[in-house]
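# step 3/5: fold
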Amino acid sequence: MLNAAATQTPIEAQPEIELSVVIPVYNEEDNIAPMIDRVLFGLKDFTAPWELILVDDGSTDGTLANARKALGRDGLTLRIVELQRNFGQASALQAGIDASRGRLIATLDGDLQNDPVDIPMMIDMLEARDLDLLSGWRKSRQDGLVLRKIPSWCANYLIGKITGVKIHDYGCSLKIYRSKIVKQVRIIGGMHRFIPAWVASVAPHSRIGEVVVNHHARQFGQSKYGISRTFRVILDLLAVLFFMRFRARPGHFFGSIGLAFGGLSFLIFAYLAFVKFALGEDIGTRPLLLVAVMLFMGSVQAITTGILAEFMARSNTGTQHYAVREIFGADKA
């Protein structure tokens, strides 16, 4: 008797995907078609299997409709991840990375300023230098000097100084990652600017590099960024500094503050006790007594905050900061 399994027609194994190209888009209806053409042109000589993942971050124009026109196009493995609303570039980027299946992941903007032609060169360099992340450097940046370049230069200097990951262009979206590395970090709340710093928390600095890439002026649509971004970068940078140094043990950060306040409070109380009992002076109306009490209360608050932070750090379940409405594409796995 024949084995039933042996009589079934064998299913051809799907080839493993070598590269996932992830592009978050928001209100880029005029850029979608030429961007897809540019990706196909840039990867025309890339012989390994690859996929393109477009993440529609709640666009209100014809971005999604124009993207869906490319489904089924010859030579293109395309999936479109439609988010329920606009969650921001960081969450859209994370959604694309989560949906990716490639051994390597390339990310770039959807405004045609990054050039997909650079991707094969960056992959070769990543492999040759045995890196986990290769970031693009827009050395000849085609943006305004006052509103874009100067704030970017200042931010790049500060980020490199504080995080210790010194690259010239943190803001360049064109990057190549090893999937197994970048999927160990979560990109939330505008933190896409600090991806090299996040990668440095799970990989050595020596495995993070950069290379000069092309940069083009925006042809269609309007930039989503303004001068106000500079102030948000400064606040985000403080958060990055905290997470890089105290993410695993936040109790050490708050506990150190609490112990410092508590120690100072103890010294003041000891001095006031000496004045009261040894010298016989009245301390009830002294401002120093109020200072000691406030320092003691601050110490208790900081220490208890640290304990709560420790509980939260250990109960983190990798909460998703985006919601998918639908995924379009022949293969939605």
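# step 4/5: annotate
The two ends are 36 Å apart (CA to CA).
# step 5/5: archive (pending)
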